[in-house]
Design brief:
Blueprint lengths: L3 H5 L7 H15 L7 H17 L2 H9 L14 H17 L11 E7 L1 H6 L1 E12 L15 E2 L8 E8 L2 E8 L8 E2 L12 E12 L8 E4 L15 E7 L6 E3 L2 E9 H6 L1 E7 L2 E7 L8 E4 L15 E8 L6 H13 L12 H12 L2
Helix pairs in contact: 2-3
Length: 368
Amino acid sequence: MADHYEVLGIDRTATPEEIKKAYRRLARELHPDVNPSAEAAERFKAVTHAYDVLSDPDQRERYDLGPNAGFGGGGGSFGFGDIFETFFGAAQSRTAGPRSRTERGQDALLRIEVDLDEVIFGTTREIEVDTAVLCEACEGSCCAPGTQPVTCDICHGTGQVQRAMRSLLGNVMTSSPCGTCRGYGTVVPNPCPACAGQGRVRAKRTVKVDVPAGVDTGMRLHLPGEGEAGPAGGSNGDLYLEVKVKHHKVFSRNGDDLLATLEVQMTDAVLGTVATLAALDGDVAIEIKPGTQSADIVTVKDRGVTRLRGGGRGDLKIGIQVITPVRLNSKETELMTQFAATRRPVPPEFATFQQGLFAKLRDRFLGV
């Protein structure tokens, strides 16, 4: 890279005012509005960069000192500070080096809703996500097409700047990230206009998701590499999908079992019947035995949710609710009276406490 003083046509002892005058003179000559040639445009960039460095006292001092500023110079004695830096500081500087522009992208978390019937056997979804993706214009290089990063002329590619500080023990070297290149060791003079030099842009894309059977609300699905694209062409982070199973108006879930309530007419509960009803995965035949009581449970094996781990399915458990007629016509009233007359009259009374029956009633009224 050309020397900044030579680019501006000034001596290394030039004053700040002389630097400013030289820049103004060259800017009037090379500005694209005055000189539209490609050569003038490149020189104008070099002149502007040289002025940016030399007009800043701190950057100019670092530039003048060079990458090894402070080692063996300054005229000070070689004291304890120099010895410590020689054995520890210098070694640390060599191992640190410039940091990479390329970084892994962040993970992303989204929420996905699935229907209860989709949970039984699993499903496949296509979801739209809005994340950072690789910039197609620069392919993650951060540079405008046809250009590339250049070595930082302040830290000379090390990513670090060092200063010699005098102390009672001698010269002490301090090291810090270069403020010009931010520790990368290179600068991008011509950033990609599509991504503003980031190497990635935001965009919407479609991701195919396999939702496994047996998932439940609160579980998270892990999709490696489907998260945010990293800066400067870095690898993608991961995508996490938090599952929410939608409420169903008929069926609910208890682990791997499906629960439902079946309303049965009093006559069917007394005489028994067989009903064919539509479940979440097809029709199911339900046998109501004679003498069925409210809160009885009818279990249909292997018609629940597919187990997330281990295979097989849970059961469909149906709680019976016997419906007592509210309004009877005269004929029905007469028949019920005759029926009651044939039965031995038993007055209502409290039954002996039954834990199982109580639990069934509790679960039914709470909607479990």
